[in-house]
Amino acid sequence: MNVTCSCMILNYNDAGTVMKLIEEIKDFPVFHRILIVDNCSTDDSYAKLQGLISEKIILIQTDRNGGYGYGNNFGARYIKEAFQSDYILLANPDVVFSNPLIQRFVDLMEERPELALVSAIQHDINNQPIQDLAWRVPTSFEYAILNSGKFSRFFPTTYQLDFSHPVQYVDCVPGALLLFDTDRFLQVGGYDEEMFLFGEETTLGFKLKEAGYKSLLVLDDFYRHEHSTSINKSIAARSKQLEILFDSRLLFMKKYLKSNRLMLALASFFQKRTLRKLRDQEK
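-> structure tokens emitted (283 positions)
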């Protein structure tokens, strides 16, 4: 049976970066279709991206900018209905990857029926591995402490990866580049659309794990992420980015971890303290 894989790229006011990525991957044989989802950009992105449309490259636009999760869920549903793709590669506009890596993702999914998601080691713009390559679903206490900044290093949730093996099962991976089973992603509801930005990787990892599926990290290959190009263009202040991240963490604690009031209060305390210090520095 022939399996099909589509690539999905979410754009928000970043047409130039999307066009660069499309130029690099448009001839990759692994992709049956490449879908660009314009998340209601406020600039001329949608008009610029029209020039990329072909039999293989499709451009759609969301009905509103509901955030990262909303845009990707919108695209995943479109791919399911229009192309019936078995797998979807979610790619940030600012990533660099190879066709053999994605074909390997597809092959791993076909070989391991328990899988719902596959990713690889993420390198930064200097081709160095990032710090948090994969992590466990945190406990309420661990997630509250994450908001503290310096204290979080005493309660790590990141995996000690075994690089003597080519792959390793993990709970959560960075969301810049990952391949997921279309049906399983949609079965668990995809990303949480209440989260506008950030926190979505942990939430997806939690939902897939709760449903009995596994996520896999390829340890002997990598992709490069020229980090947060789109985010930094639309939300320049680091304090604002951090505030959105903290809000997503609190939502995750309430909705999924069912954290008690003490843990929520602890998380809120650390959040306010960390943000206050950062805002003082930005003045």
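The domain at 5-282 is CATH 3.90.550.10 (Spore Coat Polysaccharide Biosynthesis Protein SpsA; Chain A).
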